[in-house]
Design a protein that fits this description.
With 368 residues, this protein is of the alpha/beta class. It has eight helices and 17 strands. Helix 1 runs parallel beside helix 2, helix 1 packs across helix 6 and helix 3 packs antiparallel against helix 4.
Length: 368
Amino acid sequence: MRKTIVVGMSGGVDSSVTALLLKQQGYDVIGLFMKNWEDDDNDGYCSSRQDLLDAVSVADIIGIPIEAVNFSNEYKERVFSYFLREYQSGRTPNPDILCNSEIKFKAFLDHAIHLGAEVIATGHYAQVREVDGLFQLLKAADIGKDQSYFLHRLNQSQLSHAMFPLGNMQKHQVRTIARQHGLANHAKKDSTGICFIGERPFREFLNRYLPMMPGDMITPEGRLIGKHVGLSFYTIGQRQGLGIGGIKSTRTESSGHEHEPWFVAGKDRQNNRLIVVQGHDHPALQSRKLEALENHWISGTAPLLRHPYAAKTRYRQADASCQLITLDRDCSSFQFEQPQWAVTPGQSIVLYEGEVCLGGAIIECGHA
């Protein structure tokens, strides 16, 4: 009997080519379109309706069945509630990471197994390798598209049921295959940002769920610079939307940056104050060490202490030389060879050994 594989089809070119390749390889392929958001599905920012039409069109061309399943309740309970709690606490979460571990590789995987599948496949740019009975998550061949950062919270069971057929391909090859096989979405723009927000103004969206709580915007030295609308609406390293572009530092504060842009450098939640500095390279934006919580190691075994690894503290970042300094059951600390810019509480630090993603943790704070 042919192996049944359920492919998560989003309507984009990556998942479409994933389904096409698996069909060509002789698998019994079933397409599955996940609907994860319902609150404002009829406004101008939500593309789920068009995405479903694109996925159905591709399934018809490829010659596979496709099903639409609604995971919006699971998404609200497992991902969106966490998203709001984190922003309310002044942190900056990455819900796409949680969406992968809780929806795409849990709710979706459970549904696929119910349909009779042994494996699920997605259009993620990453690779899976089994070594001595352990499953490893590897970076994609196309480093510019690698998505292992977003998959680092998967466990052994989830990886054992996962396939990433695009992991050894370049993005331009994927679009070429789609065009050659007459897939109408071959030139469709890649989706960006958080799936349920789309291209809408983020502050406007967040204000639907969280109240604005205005307060002072100050320098680390305590000089009042302006007013903020609420700590939840800013993130470390933010430059745009501060409304203080024309204000200069004092000589003692500037360190030579008095003509440069302002950036968010910290949050004083106790006094509801936003801390801002002038200059991209201001020392307050540099962290050589960081503390993290909620450790997750893909193999089930923690990495070695004081061992040379590489790490990312945000998705689009080059690997940085790093060591794991301390490790408790749920807490860890890391030290970098070079200071890292705008280390952000709520984001994830993801650890690598060569091409192997070891796992990671959620950043609690950074410091010099």
